[in-house]
Amino acid sequence: MALRRARPRYERAAVFNPDGLPVWADRHRLPTDVAAHDHDFFEIALVTQGHGLHIACDGDQPLQPGSAIVIPPNQWHAYARCEDLVVFDSFIAPELIDSTLSFLDAELPLMETVHTSSLPLPQRIQLSAYDLSLAIAELHSMSDTTCSRRSRIQVVGHLLIYLDILSRSWAPDHAIPRRSIARLHPAVSRAAQLMENEPARTWTLADLAAATATERTHLVRLFQRDLGVPPIAYLNRLRGQAAARLLVQTDVPISHIGARVGWDDAGYFARRFKTAYGLSPSAYRNRALSGATRHHSSTTAAEPRLPVSGARFDNPN
Q: From CA 293, how far away is CA 80, in angstroms rounded?
């Protein structure tokens, strides 16, 4: 199924430098809004000048000099209300993080949060003026093409320093609260993985308890302790996130999306989605594709955001 986008998806061949290294950095001035788009690599956007809004599935966030956003692969995002906005982008091929830099998950909590989930949300950072200057220096070094061929070792070295600068300033309590799957109780980890693998399945608490060899009441207590919500609430959040992704990234008719994520009744799907995102499914799709703002209401203190590991709703071939 072809992806539905307001502008073409960014592909690696058009982004990475012809020297073939899996890291690239480039500076862009955004004089106008940028509609929703996605790409198949990691992007780190650092604002060096101006103001605007960054729009993603976790809401609209103001941008100012020093604002940095780590955007995982296959996550749509957009820019709005751009006022003299300059963004220094860096792009990283996923295989570099998966293989050569796999140790980063253990060293940098920021990268663990971004990398260990199959569909994590963007992570947002605000750098001080001093750290912003350090970060810009590393980005300039990554984008230096004065040599006939950039050294892989040098480029990766500058990337590591840049990631360390970002991670030092990243505060999990200012982003999406997330506990590593490795730190969850085994029953919670197993049940969460089952629901993420098959979110459209009609899971019941009895099913999950049997699959994890855990008594139902005890499983609910474990979920409340580790993730802040009961298992079925976690499942509903996964379905809502998957529906939001399908609305923005595909042409699947809205009437079919509810059934794809496990909500067969169209009216029930619409109510669930509006409760979670503050918009009807059609309004959410229209605003995302147009680059408009205010995609959904903010989460209240009584309903903490969940660690997002991402239900698997891959587009059919």
A: 7
Tens-digit pLDDT profile for residues 29-49: 998 888 887 787 899 999 999
Structure tokens at 98: 């998966």
Nearest to 143 by CA among 158, 130, 164, 153: 158
pLDDT tens sequence across 221-248 = 999 888 778 999 889 888 887 888 788 7
Q: What is the pLDDT of residues 120-170, one digit of tens each?
A: 678 899 999 989 999 999 998 888 766 656 678 888 899 999 999 998 888
Q: What is each CA distance from 168 to 51, 94, 109, 294, 307, in whole angstroms?
A: 23, 22, 9, 29, 20
Q: How far apart are CA 21 and CA 17, in angstroms?
A: 7
Say how far residue 113 (Cα) sits from the centre of its chain. Answer: 10
Average pLDDT over residues 216-221: 94
